[in-house]
Protein: homoisocitrate dehydrogenase
Amino acid sequence: MLRRSVYNRQFQRTIGNISKKSNLTIGLIPGDGIGKEVIPSGRQVLETIGPKHGLTFNFIDLQAGWQTFLDTGKALPVETVKTLRENCDGALFGAVQSPTTKVEGYSSPIVALRKELGLYANIRPVKSVDTPGNKKVDMVIVRENTEDLYIKLEKTYIDEKTGTRVADATKRISEVATRRIAKIALDIALQRLKNNGNVQLTVTHKSNVLSQSDGLFREVCKEVFESNKTLYSDIQYNEQIIDSMVYRLFREPECFDVIVAPNLYGDILSDGAAALVGSLGVVPSANVGPGIVIGEPCHGSAPDIAGKGISNPIATIRSTALMLEFLGHSQAAQDIQTAVDSNLREDKIKTPDLGGKNSTSDVVNDVIRRL
Ligand code: ATP
Structure:
């Protein structure tokens, strides 16, 4: 088995943006709905952890989302992108409320941000706390972030035969994007080998139907693995068709380690996997690219509970830790994760989505107390 230092170096090489800077500028983009309630918890946690690890943070408030669109006509103001690109080391993004039908001039700001800033990977760890009777879930879903159906090439036209409407959407899978997502997934698997001597990578696809697009995804992932066999020799390589993947994910979640998926399957899988660990409110993510890391809870704007002060801040707090990890501050990240795990394990101070009666700020204060 390769040495730990090799895993670390390999991971840092792939990520490329591990700065290890101790004075960090962080953009805060709450967006809409509960995004406004959970993003401040990320800031509070950073302000608490900073002095313990010699880190200082400079925060910049930034706008994006549906309300921003209603106010200014732009869902993602140019200023937000410019500030992130030129001034920020990292950022925290809350959630945006998107209309389900087309609104002229509006498009999802997070999808646009991922594209503008080259945030090609969305890393989503899904982990349960170790308590008796709990199925052990500890997986990372690595979602390709830039293509697939999210290139949003759609058209609606009238079918000549029936005279009724038809809508087409283009699914794009490229060799370049697949190669880099496979690489980061394999390097995350290498990192996990440090803690667990037996790690597997599962490539998910639907190449039995989409033989060209998903076929290419599958082929390129395999090529990346095989062309670096010495480095990845300790990783068990698997492939799983997306439908049977979902079935296995719910029946035997403990069998999965690192899953790499095209954009849409990755999105759906991670929301589904959230059900395995109690709530969407505890699942974090990091959008990773060469210049910046954006932590983002997996949940949406949750209009049903927005404004009630009961949204679960844990997904955001964990996303904050992930952001720090990708900025090279693993110990600070680990301390945050440990404080969150300890809150969850004790199972006392919790928001209603986890069956509790506490508020967002009760949970934040409890995590901060444990830091
Ligand atoms: P959007 O349109 O922005 O995606 P949504 O309501 O369709 O919003 P989510 O925001 O992901 O989708 O919410 C799905 C469900 O999970 C909702 O019932 C919501 O209340 C709940 N939920 C999501 N995030 C949290 C959270 N942080 N705390 C508590 N409940 C949450």
